[in-house]
Amino acid sequence: MPTMNMIQALNSALDVMLSENPDILIMGEDVGYFGGVFRVTDGLQKKHGLKRCFDTPISEGGIVATAIGMGAYGLRPVVEIQFADYILPAYDQLVSEAARLRYRSGGQFWAPITVRAPYGGGIFGGQTHSQSPEAIFAHVTGLKTVIPSNPYDAKGLLIAAIDDDDPVIFLEPKRLYNGPFNGRYDQPIKTWAGEPGAEVPEGRYTVPLGKAALVREGSDVTVIAYGSMVHVALAGIEESGIDAELIDLRSIVPLDVEAIVASVRKTGRCVILHEASRFGGFGGELSALVQERCFYHLKSPIERVAGWDTPYPHAFEWDYFPGPTRLAAALTRAMEA
Fold first, then answer.
1. Residue 129 appears among annotated catalytic residues
2. CA torsion sign, 21 to 56 to 32 to 130?
3. How confident is the model at residue 337 (pLDDT cuts 50, 70, 90)?
4. CB 28 within 8 A of CB 3
5. Could you list the residue range(s) of the whole structural domain that residue 293 is in?
6. Claim to verify: residue 293 and residue 245 sit in the same structural domain
7. Are 147 and 159 in contact (CB under 8 A)?
8. What average pLDDT does the segment 285-304 reach?
9. Residues 6 or more apart whose Cβ sits within 8 Å of residue 67
10. What is the 3-state secondary structure (H, E, C) of 59-86?
11. Which one in 81, 106, 109, 161 has a CA-CA gap of 20 to 30 Å to 127?
12. Dihedral of the alpha carbons of 6, 7, 13, 14, in degrees to the nearest 10
């Protein structure tokens, strides 16, 4: 089985879908001849043609609005937003149109679109190329939000997203494109070669939306994470020396509530980790869910480790980034409470 990095796995997923379904197309800024700013669509225009993979003007609202119309007429567009930070001009179209179309039309029309966007920090992108906006999409009924943490999941989840008849926001942790990152910025950069999740089948397969992965079994405390933070969590657990169980959500809408509840009821403790700002972050929803369903099993207060409530600082990247040491401290607090 071939080893792929996340860029190659996503490219493979798009190639598979373009090859099998003539109703699928790719559109976005620089996705055609240039192959995308991170080269995820590299070679796809040359292989599948100008009408299947093409460039658009710099107009995120217009790109998504066009994709919604295409979806209503039976196509399955895959939109690339160059950075998730720039998706906000399209937010009205995603919320008011794509997410509501099936309901508003009484099931006569829907928007089977997939919107891909690189997100998150760890690359010194500063405040306009590092944000994590997942919570503002998770709040919108009618949208699904997916976040892979490794190449195998990235390909399977993307194919499942394109297959889905509902609009899907597909957020790609750009710090993981070329290799796993555990938050230890002072260590040598790693590639995906030899790493778990890097063996990716060449053909079609899917990873179901709404099904979390048990990354590490443990008995003392449950850690809930997604995207880049899965790898940070593994490093933080190792640093703490605590026997923690780690759940990779893979998608936050739909959410695998059963997996979360089963783990927390087993361990009696819970630490939630995400890169986005703490206030109003998706960790608040996860915390409420655990409190409501696992209250009589909890042995200590729920802990949240997240980005600070500031713009993403370029000069102080690693002070903002919730690294393994901050997680280890939260795990220790959970055990000592």
1. yes
2. negative
3. confident
4. no
5. 213-336
6. yes
7. no
8. 98
9. 27, 77, 79, 111, 113, 115
10. CHHHHHHHHHHHHHCCCEEEEECCCHHH
11. 161
12. 160
CA atoms within 13 A on the CB side of 172: 31
pLDDT digits (tens, 9 = 90+) for 168-177: 999 999 999 9
CA dihedral 37, 42, 47, 53 (to 10 degrees): -20
Burial of 15 (0-12, 13-18, 19+ CB in 10 A): middle
Domain count, the chain: 2
Token pair recorded at residue 280? 């109003």
264, 242 contact by CB (below 8 A): no
Phi, psi of 197 (to 5 degrees): 85, 0
On whether the CB atoms of residues 18 and 46 are closer than 8 A, the answer is no
> Tell me, what's the pLDDT at 126?
87
Q: Which of 48, 129, 231, 274 is catalytic?
A: 129
Q: What are phi and psi of 104, to 5 degrees?
A: -70, -30
Model-wide pTM > 0.85: yes
At which of 161, 176, 191 does a domain end? 176
One domain, residues 138 and 265: no
Cβ atoms 7, 38 nearer than 8 A: yes
Tell whether 23 and 155 lie within a shared domain: yes
Task: Check: CB of residue 278 under 8 Å from CB of residue 304.
Answer: yes
Distant-in-sequence, close-in-space partners of 25: CB < 8 Å, separation ≥ 6: 18, 51, 52, 53, 54, 70, 75, 76, 77, 78
Could you give the angle at which helices 282-294 and 257-267 cross, rounded to 10 degrees? 60
Picking from 144, 181, 174, 177, the residue whose alpha carbon sits closest to that of residue 161 is 144
Buried b (16+ CB within 10 A) or exposed e, 319-335: ebbbbbebbbebbbebb
